[in-house]
Specification:
The chain is α+β, with helices and mostly antiparallel strands. It has one domain. It is built from one helix and three strands, in the order E-E-E-H. A three-stranded antiparallel beta sheet has the order 1-2-3, covered by helices on one side.
């Protein structure tokens, strides 16, 4: 049986509700989703926040997550 593996990256927002009781406030954070997809099903999502002023450290975190996901995609399931 052949397993089809893909890596998908896309800009994503994460909504986090306020921990305060009776509060309906929601904070939204921009980030990049790195999805590992096997036969059309998301196996392992990774979400990496991005700030308004990204740094080299932010770039390195994203590159490392992408690299690991790409290595995973090359391994036969």
């Amino acid at each position: 049986m052949t397993v089809e593996r893909q890596v998908r990256l896309f800009l994503s927002n994460r909504a986090v509700p306020s921990p305060a009781k009776d509060s309906q406030e929601v904070a939204r954070y921009a980030g990049i989703a790195v999805l590992r997809v096997e036969d059309g099903e998301v196996i392992e999502p990774t979400w990496i926040p991005v700030g308004t002023t990204p740094s080299y450290a932010d770039d390195e975190i994203l590159i490392a997550a992408w690299h690991v996901a790409l290595q995973w995609s090359c391994i036969a399931g």
